[in-house]
C-alpha cells in the first residue's frame, strides 16, 4: 500500500461509520413498525447524506493521482470533512431507542437547521481541501467562481426556511446532482 492509501484508509473508516449509522438507523425505523409515522423528508435527507458520503470517497480515491504527497494540514481537513459527514448522517434519521411514537416529518423539522449547516460546512471544508491540494500538489490554477459555489448559500437558506416543498425539491435536486456527479465513471487500477 502506498502512503496515500494508508491515509485514505483511515479517513474511509470514518465514512464507513457514517454509512453504518445510516444503515442502523434505517433498520431501527423499519423494526419500529407501527410506531413510525413516515414522512418523506428525513429519508430523503438520509439518501442525500449517503450519496454525499459515497461521492466523497470517490473524490478521495481520485486524489491518488495528485503528484506529491498530502500535507498533514490537508489530511486534517480530509478527516475533519469525514467527521462532518458522519454528523450529517447521524442527523438525518431519528434515534429510536425508546418506545414512543417516531414522527419523521417532525424529526426533519427539528433537525433541518443542523442538517443544512453541516451540509454547508462539509462542502466548504471539502472544497477548500480539494482546491488547496490541486493548487499546491498538482500545480493547478484556481479558476474562480463556478456554479457549484451556490451550494453554500442554498444550504444556508434551507437552514432557515421552513417550506417543506422547497426542502423536498432541494433534497431531490441534490440527490440528482450527487448521482450525476460521477455517473458512468469507473475506478481504474493504477
Number of strands: 2
Number of domains: 1
Mean pLDDT: 87
Lateral arrangement of strands in the main beta sheet? 1-2
- Strand percent estimate: under 5%
Q: For the CA atoms, what is the radius of gyration?
A: 18 Å
Structural class: mainly alpha
For the largest beta-sheet, the strand count, sense and barrel status come to: 2 strands, parallel
Task: Name the helix and strand elements from N-terminus to C-terminus, one letter apiece.
Answer: HEHHEHHH
Task: Please report the number of helical segments.
Answer: 6
User: What share of residues is helical?
Assistant: over 70%
Distance between the termini: 12 Å
Identify low-pLDDT runs.
none
**Which term fits the overall shape?**
globular
Give a structural overview.
The protein has about 190 residues and is mainly alpha-helical. The protein has 6 helices and 2 strands. The protein has one domain (about 5-180). Helix 2 (about 40-60) runs parallel beside helix 4 and helix 4 runs antiparallel to helix 5 (about 150-160). The longest helix is centred in the middle third of the chain and has 35 residues, at about 105-140. The N and C termini lie close together (about 10 Å).
Amino acid at each position: 500500500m502506498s502512503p496515500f492509501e494508508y491515509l485514505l484508509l483511515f479517513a474511509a473508516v470514518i465514512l464507513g461509520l457514517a454509512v453504518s449509522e445510516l444503515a442502523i438507523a434505517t433498520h431501527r425505523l423499519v423494526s419500529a413498525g407501527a410506531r413510525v409515522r413516515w414522512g418523506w423528508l428525513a429519508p430523503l435527507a438520509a439518501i442525500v447524506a449517503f450519496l454525499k458520503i459515497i461521492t466523497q470517497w470517490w473524490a478521495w480515491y481520485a486524489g491518488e493521482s495528485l503528484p506529491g504527497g498530502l500535507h498533514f494540514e490537508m489530511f486534517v481537513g480530509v478527516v475533519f470533512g469525514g467527521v462532518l459527514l458522519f454528523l450529517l448522517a447521524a442527523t438525518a434519521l431519528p434515534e429510536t431507542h425508546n418506545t414512543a411514537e417516531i414522527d419523521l416529518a417532525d424529526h426533519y423539522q427539528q433537525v433541518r437547521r443542523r442538517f443544512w449547516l453541516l451540509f454547508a460546512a462539509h462542502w466548504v471544508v471539502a472544497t477548500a481541501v480539494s482546491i488547496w491540494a490541486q493548487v499546491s500538489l498538482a500545480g493547478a490554477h484556481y479558476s474562480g467562481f463556478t456554479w457549484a459555489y451556490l451550494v453554500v448559500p442554498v444550504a444556508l437558506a434551507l437552514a432557515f426556511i421552513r417550506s417543506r416543498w422547497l426542502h423536498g425539491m432541494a433534497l431531490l435536486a441534490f440527490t440528482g446532482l450527487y448521482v450525476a456527479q460521477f455517473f458512468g465513471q469507473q475506478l481504474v487500477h493504477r
